[in-house]
Write a structure and sequence with these properties.
5 helices, about 0% strand, Four Helix Bundle (Hemerythrin (Met), subunit A), single chain, mainly alpha
């Protein structure tokens, strides 16, 4: 075998080995991207579940308060139906929020403390409606004016609003992390292809 043939075989072998290493790196990067994508998707799903549960609970409490306010202002029984519907939903939505937070890596709040505040708020709503329905509407309005219920509602909004804001932040963070990883892998893949071409240009 001539020296030229041996040189060609050696160059081909080196080029193939180098290309193989580069391709292994690219494939490994793709596998890593798939793995991390699954993590980011799972993280975003967790955050969305927490956000949805917190928003649903806040909406139910706000609806119950709206029904109370409407009834006290008008004394129209039709306003009691939204109140009753919301009250029936609140306990279920509390459970949904607790379940979503217990399964999340991103949200940490004192659910029991939140439940106590919600219970106090619902007690205030029920008390004012009971007074109004028993003919003591002025006493019910005085109870509203002392702003105990407002303070409780503000606490609830602050806590659930914080949960929603953190969930939104986590969703955006997971998405951005995925985009950054995908961009990095894209650039690495392009660099790998260029490197493979460079290997063959150098050795041939």
């Amino acid at each position: 075998m001539s020296d030229q043939q041996q040189s060609l075989i050696r160059s081909t072998f080196i080029a193939l080995v180098a290309s193989a290493f580069i391709l292994v790196g690219i494939v490994s990067g793709i596998i890593y991207l798939v793995y991390k994508t699954q993590q980011y998707v799972a993280g975003a799903a967790e955050a969305r579940m927490v956000r949805s549960a917190a928003a649903d609970l806040l909406l139910a409490i706000q609806d119950s308060e709206s029904g109370q306010r409407g009834f006290l202002l008008t004394m129209e029984p039709t306003f009691l139906q939204p109140y009753r519907d919301s009250i029936d939903e609140i306990s279920r939505r509390e459970d949904a929020l607790e379940a979503s937070i217990s399964g999340s890596r991103f949200s940490e709040i004192d659910v029991e403390s939140l439940r106590r505040v919600i219970t106090q708020k619902l007690t205030e709503l029920k008390a004012t409606l009971s007074l109004a329905q028993s003919g003591r509407r002025d006493d019910a309005l005085d109870m509203v004016r002392n702003q105990v219920g407002l303070s409780l509602m503000n606490d609830i909004r602050e806590t659930l609003g914080g949960v929603i804001a953190e969930a939104d932040r986590q969703i955006a963070l997971q998405l951005q992390s995925h985009l950054n990883l995908a961009m990095g892998l894209r650039m690495a893949t392009i660099a790998g292809v260029i490197a493979v071409l460079a290997v063959f240009v150098i050795f041939f």
